[in-house]
Inverse folding.
C-alpha cells in the first residue's frame, strides 16, 4: 500500500521547497509541472531488527508526495482550482496545505502582503469550494432523476438528496466534510466523490529563518486556532529544511543544533501524516528482508496479510506474533519461543503497531 499525499498551496507559498525537504529532492522551483517523490518512513526499529536477522535488505514503509506544481488559485480568477490541481488532489489520501509565513523582498507575495491567517482561510475555502461545486452539480442531477424516477427508485434518490443538502449546508457554514457526523452507510455513499475537505489535512506554516527563534510559540498560536478533527498544523522553515535534507547526517545534526531544531521537519511531517491517516506499521523479519508495512489502525491479521501477498490472505492459517519490545528483550525468535512470548493469533486478531509477524499459510 502506498500512502499518497498531495501538496497544495497558494502561489509562492513554498510548496516545491517543502516538497524537496520532504523527499530530499531537488525539484526545480521553476514550477509548471507536478513533482512526485517517495520518502522512506524513518523507523529506528528496522535497524535494530536488522542487527539480529542480518537481512539482505531493509525495506522501510514509503510515503508518496506530489507537489501539484500549480497554485491552488487560478490567477485572475476569483475562486476555483484548475482541473489539473483537482484531479491530482482527489486521488490523494491526505492533503498538505502549505501556507506562507516567511517574508522575502525577492519573493513578493501574490496578494501584496504576508498574512498567514488570511491564507489558511483562503486555502480552506478553495478546498470547500471544490466540494460545493461537486455537490451542487450532483443535486441538480438528482432533481432531474427524481422527476422521471420510478416508484422504487425514489427513496434512494431522496436519501442521497437529503444527505448532500446537509453536507452542503455544513460546508456553507465553514464545516469541512471531515467533521460531518456521518453513519457508516452515509460515509460509504459519499466516499466515491473523493471530497477534498473529507481528506485528512496537515497545514504546514512555512516560516522564514528569522522566525525560527519563535517557532514554538508561533506553532502554538496557529495550532490553537486550526487543530481540529483530522486536521493538524505544524510550522516548518521550508528553506532550511531543504538545505538540511541535502546534507549528510553529521552535518545536518550540527546545523539542526545551531538552529535549535529538535526534530527534522521531514520526520515530523511523516509522523503527523501517519497520525492523521490513522496508520501504524507492522514488521516482518527474515534472512532476505526486514520490512515495515503501513496499515490502518484496527486492521485484522488476515487483512494485514494481504498487504504482504494476496496468497497469504487467501491461504491464511495463523499469524505468529511478538511485539517488537518483547523480541528485543529476548534477542532472538528462538529465545522468545522458549519464553512463550511468540503468540499464535487467528484471522480476526487486531494487529498492533510494532507487531513482528510471521504468517503461516497454504496455497
Ligand atoms: N526567505 C525565504 N524564502 C523562501 C522560504 N521558503 C521558500 N522560499 C523562496 O520562495 C520562493 C518560492 O518558493 P517555492 O518553493 O518555489 O514556492 P511554490 O509555492 O512552489 O511556488 P510556485 O510553484 O511558483 O507557486 C523560492 O524562491 C524559495 O526559495 C523561506 O522559508 N524563506
Ligand atoms: Mg512550485
Amino acid at each position: 500500500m502506498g500512502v499518497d499525499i498531495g501538496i497544495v498551496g497558494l502561489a509562492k507559498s513554498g510548496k516545491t521547497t517543502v516538497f524537496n525537504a520532504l523527499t530530499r529532492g531537488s525539484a526545480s522551483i521553476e514550477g509548471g509541472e507536478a513533482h512526485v517523490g517517495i520518502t522512506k518512513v524513518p523507523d529506528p526499529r528496522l535497524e535494530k531488527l536488522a542487527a539480529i536477522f542480518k537481512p539482505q535488505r531493509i525495506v522501510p514503509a514509503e510515503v508518496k508526495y506530489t507537489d501539484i506544481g500549480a497554485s491552488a488559485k487560478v490567477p485572475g480568477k476569483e475562486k476555483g482550482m484548475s482541473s489539473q490541481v483537482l484531479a491530482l488532489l482527489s486521488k490523494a489520501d491526505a492533503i498538505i496545505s502549505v501556507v506562507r509565513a516567511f517574508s522575502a523582498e525577492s519573493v513578493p507575495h501574490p496578494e501584496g502582503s504576508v498574512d498567514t491567517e488570511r491564507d489558511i482561510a483562503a486555502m480552506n475555502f478553495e478546498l470547500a469550494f471544490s466540494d460545493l461545486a461537486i455537490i451542487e452539480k450532483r443535486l441538480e442531477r438528482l432533481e432531474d432523476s427524481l422527476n422521471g424516477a420510478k416508484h422504487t427508485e425514489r427513496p434512494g434518490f431522496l436519501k442521497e438528496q437529503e444527505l448532500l443538502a446537509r453536507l452542503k449546508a455544513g460546508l456553507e457554514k465553514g464545516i469541512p466534510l471531515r467533521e460531518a457526523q456521518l453513519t457508516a452507510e452515509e460515509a460509504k455513499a459519499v466516499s466515491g466523490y473523493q471530497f477534498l475537505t473529507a481528506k485528512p489535512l496537515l497545514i504546514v506554516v512555512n516560516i522564514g529563518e528569522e522566525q525560527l527563534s519563535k517557532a514554538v510559540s508561533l506553532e502554538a498560536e496557529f495550532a490553537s486556532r486550526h487543530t481540529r478533527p483530522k486536521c493538524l498544523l505544524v510550522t516548518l522553515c521550508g528553506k532550511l529544511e531543504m538545505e538540511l535534507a541535502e546534507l549528510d547526517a553529521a552535518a545536518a545534526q550540527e546545523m539542526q543544533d545551531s538552529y535549535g531544531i529538535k526534530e527534522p521537519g521531514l520526520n515530523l511531517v511523516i509522523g503527523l501524516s501517519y497520525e492523521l491517516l490513522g496508520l501504524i506499521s507492522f514488521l516482518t523479519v527474515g534472512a532476505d528482508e526486514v520490512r515495515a508495512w503501513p496499515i490502518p489502525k484496527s486492521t485484522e491479521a488476515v487483512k494485514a496479510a494481504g498487504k504482504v501477498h494476496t496468497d497469504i490472505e487467501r491461504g491464511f492459517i495463523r499469524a505468529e506474533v511478538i511485539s517488537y519490545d518483547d523480541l528485543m528483550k529476548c534477542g532472538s525468535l528462538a529465545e522468545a519461543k522458549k519464553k512463550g512470548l511468540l503468540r499464535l493469533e487467528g484471522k480476526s486478531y487486531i494487529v498492533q503497531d510494532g507487531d513482528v509477524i510471521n504468517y503461516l499459510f497454504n496455497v
